[in-house]
Amino acid sequence: MGGFEEDCRDDVNPIAKTLDQLDLGSVKQANGVALPLTDGGPVNGGKVIVEVSPERHDETQDKGKNGTPIEANVTAGPKKKKSKSKAQRGLTKPTGFEEFYVDAPVTPAEYEEEKSTYDPSLAFSEYTAKRKLDEKRKDLFDQYMAYGGIDCGQKMFSGGLDQHTLEEKNAAEIATMTATHFVNPDREDTTKFVVDFDGCARGFLSSRLPCRFDVTFEQQIRSYTAIIRNFLNYLLHHDVCPEYNTQINAARTTCDRTDKELWSVSQASAYFPGPFNTACSITFGGSYKDSYIGNQEWAKDYTDIPPGMSPDAARKILKIGLAAQASEDVFQAFKAQTDEHNVTIIEALSTSLEITALIPADPDILTLYKSQEPTLQPLGKLLARTWHNPNRTQPDLTIEEEAAAASAPKAITEYEFWLEDDILAMCFVGMKFEATVRKMSFGMSFFDALEAVHVSFYEVLPNEMVIGWREVEENWLPRRPKEEIEGEIEGDRDGEEEMVQGEEGD
């Protein structure tokens, strides 16, 4: 076999064998100029003249053709296109939203020009021109502007301005022509609209931002507030509206509060109502009753679904919770009613609450849990009171009942709930939440189904209803006379009857 393979190798095309052994220095174009080679072959393709040096090949390989030029057709492949680097694409340029980014100082000449020629309403477009707004940042900024009564739209000249226009117009006129944010003249009526930077920030960050954007990560929340804070800093830096500087500084403080409170709200929302309140709901017939699926035959095929809390586990959590936090009167009432099978829910209402105090577990409770149930979190106390949510759906009342309810004093009810220490650490005084509260016959209350959790400065503004508002059309088409409409209907019927008769005759 070895001799046969050697004979086959000797019969290989001498041109192919010679090309295999060439180095880059022996490849030339027909005119004798060195040909640069790329991954795709010769730059321009075509014929390549290959000169074989006599010293580099033996007589057997050259077959008597040493020094003779060999022609080979080489087809050029497609030229590989180099991708631009991040620097060439502008991705490394500052966006203006870096943590320690500051605007360049305003010179006296620039300050005088801005004060003499610029309308404060142009500050929105000037700001966007000096910042690099990607898709997400622009979406949030536009929604913040719309919430504050600023209309967002396309540029007047989307194709850009020619050189002649740029030379004839001043900076203020050019800014007006390229603006994308406008103040509707109808909103300059001070009897209907007021300028309130802090009120707008509180309303947007507390009620609209959590509904429109993802707030499940702390870094995301900080990126949202950084955009609004950056805009407020720009207004202060360029002295756009000095008469509102106090409001602007208050709005910046609201952004700082949002960073802390909204993240706590996001965490608490994921853990409320906690194991103890869930155990109460399962045991006493609340919204979590029959939620355990671990004993269901069909659930064995769905191992990725949490089975929930079993009734036995719920009773164990409830008993140690009562032993830790219940007063003597409450504990004895629970024991007596349990023996008589007379434990009932005497009141259930859906309400809004505000946290007034947070009391973590004391050392005695910590010792009890450590000795009895070390796997469970010890219980602390959450004190709350009724909070009248302006955005909560009100009952359907008559005009007289609404007037009576508006004039009646608001009832304030105090509540005490028991909650795990790790969840209490996510809460803060002033946090607001909406839940279903159930009061037991033995004197304990627990909150069941949680509806929403809000920051302490939660506020709903009428701005929500103004977004996308359009005035009702005043000019309507005149109403057509009844006789004209009936005549058209009769004509259509006659035409249909003639068509049917014609088909029958055929």
Can you characterise this structure?
With 506 residues, the chain is an alpha+beta fold. It is 42% helix and 14% strand. It has 19 helices and 12 strands. It has a 5-stranded antiparallel beta sheet. Strands 1-4-5 form a 3-stranded antiparallel beta sheet, with no helix packed on it. Strands 2-3 form a two-stranded antiparallel ribbon. α9 (197-212) runs parallel beside α11 (245-271). The longest helix is centred in the middle third of the chain and has 27 residues, at 245-271. The protein starts with a helix and ends with a helix. Residues 1-65 have low confidence and may be disordered.
Summarize the structure.
Residues 1-65 have low confidence and may be disordered.
